[in-house]
Amino acid sequence: AAPLRVLGIESSCDETGIALVELPGGVRGAQPVRLLAHALHSQIDMHQAYGGVVPELASRDHIRRVVPLLRQTMTEAGHALASIDVVAYTRGPGLAGALLVGAGMACALGMALGKPVLGVHHLEGHLLSPFLSADPPQFPFIALLVSGGHTQLMRVDGVGAYTLLGETIDDAAGEAFDKTAKMLDLGYPGGPALSKLAEQGDPTAFKLPRPLLRGDNIDFSFAGLKTAVWMQQQRLVAAGTMTEQARADLAASTQAAIVDVLVAKSLLALKASGLKRMVVAGGVGANRRLRQQLDAQCAKRGVRVHYPELHLCTDNGAMIALAAAMRLQAGRAEPSLAYHFDVKPR
Ligand code: KG4
Ligand code: ZN
């Protein structure tokens, strides 16, 4: 069978991502998805001055970037636009105006090429992203999805067969990183900055809460941590002991609290399901301490942990093209020639 090529467009937040993937044996072939090329532009520098993502600016920048990135992707892949069989885009969740840029581009391209379009759930992209790594997982597995907007544990039995086991009742893990980093004047996005500063600090220096850790509850809560960090910081400032070292210690203690909860809940989900395989995806999955602690705990229990390649942890087009291709291969997708814009911000 002829290969099937899927273009993926991601524009849900502050990253514009385009990628071309291929199912070498077509939709009926059993071979895994191959990434042919991808291009990414991060708006982080633009939003940094505002301490967070400004939706209006994000939309405008996606519009500026999407065509050059598409050209770059096709050139790198060495294929003409006409060789695209399906155009996939992120349908949601995300910023409405930002999502519309990707959806609009997908529909316009699909219409011009006479090819169908397919909306993809952003989290499904993250969830399946380890399938593009050199050491892809096998179903079934437990997935820990940790991004700026979501913190979920799921049981994954196959493409589209997802069971939610637990999720955050307030802030997401990435939000906890970002908000505490902001308190420590580390700027945006806080996750990478906080974890960098934490390397100089003592993770046991300050006692911070690990909410919902007792019992067999698989839900998460991070709102209390934010308050605890703030109070600790106020105490240090009042005592005149907010030194560089204290700041690093507080960053390290905060990171340790977040990671402890993520690891403990993951172990609970693994134990309850009896599964011996785990996938970690989403921006916070890039965190080094999380990887070290989870790997160590899982190794003790004979559990294999799979991660996406580091550069595919945060938002990108490759995961969207991949999710679309895997859905098509599993017979669980209905690409459409109707070209109606259906974005789902929530
Ligand atoms: O998946 P993602 O790129 O976007 C969303 O869909 O939200 O995740 C972004 C989140 C941000 O909150 C960012 O601070 C966090 O991932 N993040 C990290 C690290 N790298 C990114 N958090 C902790 N440690 C990191 N190394
Ligand atoms: Zn994301």
Compact overview of the structure:
The protein has 346 residues and is an alpha/beta fold. The chain has 10 helices and 10 strands.
Protein architecture, described:
- The chain has helices spanning 44-48, 55-77, 96-113, 122-128, 173-183, 190-198, 223-238, 244-273, 288-300, 317-329, and strands at 4-10, 15-23, 34-42, 86-92, 117-121, 141-146, 151-158, 161-167, 277-281, 304-306.
- It has ten helices and ten strands.
- The chain folds into two domains: 4-128 and 314-329, Nucleotidyltransferase, domain 5; 139-307, ATPase, nucleotide binding domain (Nucleotidyltransferase, domain 5), CATH 3.30.420.40.
- The strands form two sheets. The protein has a five-stranded mixed sheet with strand order 3-2-1-4-5, sandwiched between helices.
- It is α/β, with parallel strands linked by helices.
- α5 (173-183) packs across α6 and α5 packs antiparallel against α8 (244-273).
- Zinc ion (ZN) binds at residues 122, 126, 147, 282, 315.
- Residues 35-321 form the Gcp-like domain.
- Fe cation binds at residues 122, 126, 315.
- Keywords: Acyltransferase, Cytoplasm, Hydrolase, Iron, Metal-binding, Protease, Transferase, tRNA processing.
CATH superfamily descriptor of the largest domain: ATPase, nucleotide binding domain
Bound molecules: 5'-O-[(R)-(carboxyoxy)(hydroxy)phosphoryl]adenosine, zinc ion
Distance between the termini: 38 Å
Order of helices and strands: EEEHHEHEHEEEHHHHEHEH
The largest sheet has its strands arranged as 3-2-1-4-5
Helix content: 40-55%
Q: The CATH topology of the largest domain is what?
A: Nucleotidyltransferase, domain 5
Helix and strand composition category: alpha/beta
Largest sheet at a glance? 5 strands, mixed
Shape: globular
Q: Radius of gyration, rounded?
A: 21 Å
How many domains, as an integer? 2
Low-confidence stretches: none
